Structure formats: structure tokens, C-alpha cells
TrEMBL record:
This is DNA-binding Lrp family transcriptional regulator. GO terms for biological process: regulation of DNA-templated transcription; response to amino acid. The keyword Transcription applies. GO terms for cellular component: cytosol. Residues 5-68 form the HTH asnC-type domain. Keywords: DNA-binding, Transcription, Transcription regulation. GO terms for molecular function: sequence-specific DNA binding. The keyword Transcription applies.
Amino acid sequence: MPVIPDAIDRHILQVLQRDGRISNVELAKEVGLSPSPCLRRVRLLEEAGIIDRYVAVLDPAKVGAGLTVFARVWFKTQDAEVTLRFGEAVRRFPEVMECYLTTGECDAVLRIVTADLHSYWRFQADHLTRIPSVLSVKTDVPMETLKRSYELPLR
């Protein structure tokens, strides 16, 4: 059964999504609690798995991963074994940042990061299209990023 955070917990989560390195004292001040109950609430959110982990968000271009593409993938067949094996394969590739099984035109959508277009082409040819269940891949290359957020909307 999912834990439903109250308004104070949601406020804590909103602040932590903006700044995961905020001190507990500053967090408590921002959400209107004293430090001890604030820390207790954060610990409970962590234990409940609502806070999954803390990460550093990197600038992709500054670490040699400046190209993001979206690959639409079609499977040869659509059975549980195929999707299981496909998932196992894409989890092994660090270039695949996200992978979603989808309804509609294609069977899966992947967000992939590489250094440049040539690197992506090599990844697609050497890895992605060699997954046994993959029938075809169509790639969309975004021209500009208008929004990139990691904050979930909490209401």
C-alpha cells in the first residue's frame, strides 16, 4: 500500500527535489519545522522508499555525453519472453538512460546519450540492433532541449 505524504512531507520533497544537498537545518527552516522533526520525516520518507536515492545531476556536454536521441524500437514478436530479454539487454548498456515499453506504434522507446551522432550510430549498429528480439529501430534526434526537469509534480 503506498504511503500518502501529507502537506509537510510534500513540501519537504519539493525542496529536496530542487536541492538534495540542503542541510537539515535549512530544510527545516524552509518547511516550517524544527530540525529534529524534519529529520525524522526525511528518514521516514527514505525508509518508505518515497525518497529512492540522492544523485548529482551532471551537464551531459561537459562529460562527453552531449547527444541525446530517442530510439523507437519494434520487436519481432510481442511475448513476455521477448520483453524480458530485451529489458535485460538494454539494462547492460550505460548509454540507455531510460527505456519504456509502450502501446501504440512501437514496442519500446529509449532515451540514449552518447558523445555525438557517430557514436550513436556505432551503438545502434553494434549493440541495439543486435538484440535478438529487435526487428527495427527508428531514431529521433532532438534539435534543442526546451525543458529538462527531475522534479515530480507533487500536489
